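Reopening this ticket.

The earlier resolution said the output was attached, but the attachment link was broken on my side. Pasting everything inline this time so it's all in one place.
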Amino acid sequence: MPIINLFLVGGAIVLALIIFLIVAKFFNLWLRASISNAPVSIVNLLAMYLRGVPNALIVDTRITASKAGISINTDQLEAHYLAGGEVSHVVLSLIAADKAGIPLDFNRACAIDLACKGTSKTVLEAVRTSINPKVIDCPHPDMGRGGKIDAVAKDGISLRVRARVTVRTNLDRFIGGATEETVVARVGEGIVTCIGSSASYKDVLENPDSISKLVLHKGVDAGTAFEILSIDIADIDVGENVGAKLQAEQAETDKKIAQANAEVRRAAAVAVEQEMAARTQEMRARVVEAEAQIPLAMAEAFRNGNMGIMDFARYKNLAADTDMRSKIAGVSTNASQG
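Inline output:
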């Protein structure tokens, strides 16, 4: 019996020591939460520790929410932390929305925070942008091309435009809504459409607000996470005469095509000329060939008795006379050669 009592006393002492150590470890957090009117039990603090949740972060964020008049229990904060969210950003965004009179509950704030995970955006930034509108340059300065959008009017004159878009975050469409890049792309498309449909670049210079009206009328913020408040044309520059440049390039192209066609016709003419020269040589060859048959015919006539010596003499005299007359006239013939 004395040994059993000794074990019981020893176990009670060990248990009391463990309880004392636990209370001593979490006493500061428990006391801070209690005096801040956001009490958290020692058991909950121990459970957070065992689950690997930073209990100091949970307690501090709950105290912050409680001081702002927002009621959030530790289970909600723990669940969002374990889901990979930023509990401090969620609480601060709830406080900012509450002070600005924007309806935003804890679950939606958590959803927005998780949607921002992996991006440069935060739920706190989204709420602040909803309170204080943000100005977006169109196009973005890092897109190059001199930081302006090029568009050509119907008269062929190009205009270079830079716009500034004032947007406000639409928290209802933030989850699944398009980002700033989509807004900038749609505004740029609207600017190009407006300038391209203008009869002259002067019309755009006289009424630059027509660009803003057209773009706003198209509702470029549909399906995005933003609501466009205004589109202001910050700068317009007159560019080059694209129409004249294109016409000059077309004329140069037509000239090259005409030159190519003329070269084709010249080559065809040269080919025809060479063909005719070849045919002429062929005909001359036939004449020479026919003249070569004359002596053979005369010899055949001699053999057949159809031609005598006197006939041949008269032929020679006639050929000599013809050759003489041709030399006197300055014309060479092939008769003497025959």
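Reporter confirms the inline version is readable. The chain is about 65% helix and 10% strand. The first helix runs from residue 2 to 35.
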